[in-house]
Every structure is written in C-alpha cells, then in structure tokens.
Amino acid sequence: MRRALALLCGLVLCGAAGCATAGGVEVEGRAGQVSPPPTPPTLPSGTPVSADAIGVLRADPLIGAKIKSTLVPCEGGYYPIDDRYVDLTGDGESELVVTLLNCPGDERLKAGLAPYAFGPGHAGYAYNLATEPPTRLLGVEGGGIDLVPYTGAGNDLAVIRSAYAVRDDPCCPSDQTFTLYRWNGAMLVEVPK
Q1: Most distant pair of Cα atoms in the chain: their distance
Q2: What value does the mean pLDDT take over residues 70-98?
Q3: Global pTM?
Q4: Per-residue b/e over 130-169, b at no fewer than 16 CB within 10 Å?
Q5: Neighbouring residues of 153: CB distance < 8 A, sequence distance ≥ 6
Q6: What distance in Å separates the CA atoms of residue 175 and residue 188, rounded to the nearest whole number?
Q7: Within 10 A of 105 (CB to CB), how many other CB atoms are there?
Q8: Per-domain residue ranges for the chain?
C-alpha cells in the first residue's frame, strides 16, 4: 500500500513539476516577446472599407446577360477580377475600377474566344461608389481589355486594348491601343491624342 501511495505521489509531483515523456514539449525560461502583426497600409482618403465589386457589377442594369454570366467564381473559389480604388474625379473619394478576367481552363479559352487566362480581360468598368446605387462612369467590353489607373497628368484612366495574333506569347500582343480618359467635372472623357 505504501508503495502504491509513494508511486501515486511521485506521479502527481512529476505532473505538477512539468515532467515530460519522450516526444513531449519541454518549456524552460521566460516566454519570448511576441510582436503584434504589422498594421495594414492605410487606404486613400475616401476609400470605402470594402466594396463588393461583384455585387456592384451584378446590380448594374447596363451590363448585359452575357457579361453577367461570367460573374461566377473560378475553380479555386475566387472571382476572376482585378479591382482597384483610385480617385478618378479628384474629389478625394476613391472610385472602383474593375477589369473582368478569365478563369484558367475557361471554356472560352478552349474555344479560342478569349486569348489567355490572366492576360487582358473581357470587360472593364469604373464606378462612383459615393452614390447609391453606385454610378457607372465608364464601361468597355470586348476581348483584350485592361483598365489601368494612370497618374501622368492627373488621375486619368488608361484603357488598353490588346489584340493577339496566333503565334503571340501572353506577354507580347501584336497590337495594342492605349486610350486615356480624364474626368471633366461631369464625366470621364477621352483625352485627345
């Protein structure tokens, strides 16, 4: 009986003291100081905390059924869009600029209707998010489109249209046109070349 009691006391004391078995974790000394995660970068003044770009596109009555049918997630669960916030109007509030891309393995890619998976997209739009519902400022549709904020002479928006020949690499389309749009106080208008 005494032997069993001594063994039990030994186990209790070992457990309280932190004895470990082989393969266990042994903790010695003070715990290291954990640094807090870095703070996220600050958004430009007026940028909404979040905007559901897909929701904005789906609610736009000017977008046709053909384009809206592409607003579905890719195989990995992500939407094939490039969305950015940029102050196009110069009012200190950021607008939404979104380009619709193609999913890898998209049937349009296999059929040759879309040139490359993540190259230029098939539509692009810019929206004023300060209005309810958001107001469309610009919309371009067709293959090989990319909308890129351009800060050369102001807060312009570049629309790049790419045309690929059969032998072109994804990096290098044979033909590209570059059109700048600028806010004139009421709308985005094409900047004369």
Answers
A1: 101
A2: 89
A3: 0.66
A4: eeeebebbbebeebbbbbbbbeeeebbbebbbbebeeebe
A5: 182
A6: 25
A7: 10
A8: 53-190
